[in-house]
Every structure is written in structure tokens, then in C-alpha cells.
Amino acid sequence: MAIDYTVIVVYLVGMLAMGWWGMRRAKSKSEFLVAGRRLGPAMYSGTMAAIVLGGASTIGGVGLGYQYGLSGAWMVFTIGLGLLALSVFFSARIARLKVYTVSEMLDLRYGGRAGVISGVVMWAYTLMLAVTSTIAYATIFDVLFDMNRTLAIVLGGSIVVAYSTLGGMWSITLTDMVQFVVKTIGVLLLLLPIAVVNAGGFGEMKDRLPTEYFDPLGIGGETIFTYVLIYTFGMLIGQDIWQRVFTARSDRTAKWGGTVAGTYCLAYALAGAVIGTAAKVLYPNLANADDAFATIVKDELPMGVRGLVLAAALAAVMSTSSGALIACATVANNDIWSRLRGLVKPADGEHDEVKGNRAFILIMGVGVIVTAIALNNVVEALTVAYNLLVGGLLVPILGGLLWKRGTVQGALAAVVVGGLAVIGLMATYGILANEPVYYGLLSSLAAYVAVSLVTKPTDAAVLAAWRERLAGRAPEPELVSEAVPAHQ
Predict the structure, then answer these.
(1) Closest CA to 118 of 130, 134, 107
(2) Where does the chain cross the membrane (predicted)?
């Protein structure tokens, strides 16, 4: 294992070095939070693919393939579909807004007063996303070093917090690009063909497994529909995803770079399902389907290659974890803390804002590590996060982009009613049930439409400023309060 250890250690040291290098570039709020909005197509595509394909997509995707066969690809496939939909239909408009958070977009569209409540919901989502990614370090380091769970979480989490705090989005972008390359080589070019060959090829796999393992819909129509609601729609509105859209240097880059990343996700989904199916042939009696990835890597790959593939799994976890962490800190600082305190940025406060956001990443990072140590059920935490996100924020965000009659009162009603409905239904039906997101989304939509129709339409000046921003003709706002006309 010495060669494998060397590969992993070199990789981790490289991540920290890139964090240090990124710190030298992150001199302004824009550089620190959105990489100066300067990413070109290649880097944008790679980093976008890196953040959406995390530990759940890699370890969980292989586990679903082990359990259901090729139809296990649907979870990651719906993530790719969501990224494609975001890129083709919305990313150009989102990039032209020149904001930093989803809540700022809501304030611009509705004329203020929607930011704090929506910020709290988005903060809870990004926090849980960061926590679930951080917990995944325990699985990987256990395979690598037979390490204690708590120590593994602290080690992996501390590295992510360190490079994220140092350089912000620049560090995360640089590390994500490396992680994208490592994942592509480790999972698609090495583990996939080796797993299929060791399982005897597709012919042998078909002979040894039930026919439903090769049914594209074998996982079940209701499950696929739920994946679409949670993951496809979740991709459209998550702060972690939008913050990457904000890094694009043009709306064309956001559209076509995101399309490439979404297509890559579809291929990654199929690869994970095939690897899991091969693992079912090789190890038919695993107690836990999520152990399939670690088992096939540990037993079937030669040394050196094994280290690279485990580095790929680590890369998948780190990319999602760092993206969720900076999104969580950005929302906490810009949408909640600053608004509640009524802060006004000083004239020369750009550098101070970098320090403030850096401090929030450190604070949120410590909180994520502590929460990850205390929490056991990853699936339940992730389900709560996505249910709150989709049930509370999908309708007011897409409604703001697509329906000009929507009002701030309607948006707030949708967030509150949808969020409370999801929480209540999860308490009634169970966290993992499908009903909470179904009925929560419907109640959010009903509240949004009904309240918007019975309240005064959004001020014409606000809508005019919104259209100017969507068209890319307005200057970038430095404060939400400055972006909204004073009479509101």
C-alpha cells in the first residue's frame, strides 16, 4: 500500500498548495466569492462537473448500480439533466444578473424583503450538503488507513476548510479542476474498464444477474420521478450551483460550458451503474450496497492504480464539500448576518469584505466538521436538505424568472408554506418518504399563485430594473440595498 499512500498524500498536499496560490489572487470580494467572473469554457465545464458529482454520485452511484443494475444510474442521471436544463434555459440570464447569492436575485426581482427568509432556507440546505459530503471522508480514509471515523472527518474536513478559507473561489476552482481530471482518469478510464473485464465482460454479467439488472426502468417509475423532483429541480436553484454560474466570464460560457458539464454527468451516471453491476457479479453478498465501491477498488485494482482511484473518490467528495462550504458561508454572511445587522459597506471596504467572507468560511467549516461528527445518517440529512430547498424555494425562484405577476408577498408565502409543509409531512410520513416533496411543492405553488394574484403587482420600476439586469445592461451591484430603489 506504500505507493497508494504516496499518491494520496501527494494529492492532499497539492490541494493545500493550490489553496495557498489561490489566496494570492483573491484580493477582492468578486475574486474571492466568484473567481472574478472570469472563467473560460474549459475551466468552467470542469469545475461545474466537479461540484455536482460528489461522494453521493460516486460512492452512492456505484451502490445503486450494485442494488438495481443499470437503472441505478437514474439518481446521477437526473443531476445531469438538471444541470443541462439550468445551462440551456436559465444560466445565461443568471450570469447576467451579476449577483452573489440566490437571495440577492429574489430581492432584485421582487423589490427586497425576501432575502433573509430565503437565505435561512438556502443556508440550511448548503450546510447539510457540506455535512453529508464531509461524513463521506470517513468511508474513504477507513479504506485507505483503517482510520477512526472522527479522525477521518477532522482530517478531510480540515484540508477542505484550509484551502477554501485561504483562497475562496479561486482556490476551490483550481482544486476542482484537478479533481475533475483525477475523477475522469480514476473512475471513467481506469475503474470502469477494469471492473467490467474482471467481471467477465457484459456477456458474463448478463448471464449471472437477473434480467431486471439490465432494465433501464428497473429502479421504479415513482423513484425516478422523485429523483427528478429533488435532484433535477434542485440543480436549478441551489446556491452552490448558482455560485459556479456566477464565475463564468460570459453568458455564452455559462450556457455551453454547463451543457458540456451536464453531458459529462450523464456519462458518469452510466459508468457508476456499470461499475456497481460488475461489483454485484464479483461480490454478490455484500451487507451494504454502498460498500461496493470501496470493495471493488480495494480487491480488484493493482497498487498505484488503487491509490489513484481512491484519490478520485476523495476528489469527488472534496469538490462537493468545498463548493457547499463556500456557498454556505456566502449565504450566512451576505444574506443573513449582514442584513440582520443592517451593515453598510464602507467606501474602501472591498478588502474588508474578503476578510469577512474568509472568517465566515472558517466558522462554517468548523461547524460543518462538528455536525458531521455528531451526525450518522447521511441519506436522511441529504433528503432533508433537498426537500427544504425544492419545497421552499423552487416556486419563488422559477416563478420570478418566468412569471412577471409574481409578487414579494407571494414569494414569501411560497417559502414559508412550502417549507413548513415539507417539515410537517416529513414528521408525518417519514424523512425518506416521497410525499413531503410532492405535497410541499404543490402547496408552495398554490400559495405563490394565490397570494400573488390578491396582492398589488410588483412595482413597475422594480420590474424595469430587473429586465435591465437580465439583459446585462445594468452595472454590477455592490449592495442589495443599493440595487433596490429607495422608495421601496
Answers:
(1) 107
(2) 6-23, 44-66, 72-95, 116-140, 152-173, 180-203, 223-242, 263-283, 308-332, 359-378, 384-403, 410-431, 437-455
d(CA 314, CA 183): 9
Backbone angles phi, psi at 39, to 5 degrees: -75, 135
Residue-wise pLDDT tens digits, 344-379? 444 444 445 788 888 999 999 999 999 888 876 666
Residue 276 has pLDDT above 90, yes or no: yes
3-class DSSP string for the chain:
CHHHHHHHHHHHHHHHHHHHHHHHHCCCHHHHHHHHHCECHHHHHHHHHHHHCCHHHHHHHHHHHHHHHHHHHHHHHHHHHHHHHHHHHHHHHHHHCCCCCHHHHHHHHHCCCCHHHHHHHHHHHHHHHHHHHHHHHHHHHHHHHCCCHHHHHHHHHHHHHHHHHHHHHHHHHHHHHHHHHHHHHHHHHHHHHHHHHHCCHHHHHHHHCCHHHHCCCCCCHHHHHHHHHHHHHHHHHCHHHHHHHCCECCHHHHHHHHHHHHHHHHHHHHHHHHHHHHHHHHCCCCCCHHHHHHHHHHHHCCCCHHHHHHHHHHHHHHHHHHHHHHHHHHHHHHHHHHHHHCCCCCCCCHHHHHHHHHHHHHHHHHHHHHHHHHCCCHHHHHHHHHHHHHHHHHHHHHHHHHCCCCCHHHHHHHHHHHHHHHHHHHHHHCCCCCHHHHHHHHHHHHHHHHHHHHCCCCCHHHHHHHHHHHCCCCCCCCCHHHHCCCCC
Quote the pTM value: 0.84
Q: Which domains does the chain have, with CATH numbers?
A: 1-340+355-375 (1.20.1730.10), 379-473 (no CATH)
User: What is the C-alpha separation between 320 and 331, in angstroms, rounded?
Assistant: 16
C-alpha cell at 429: 410520513
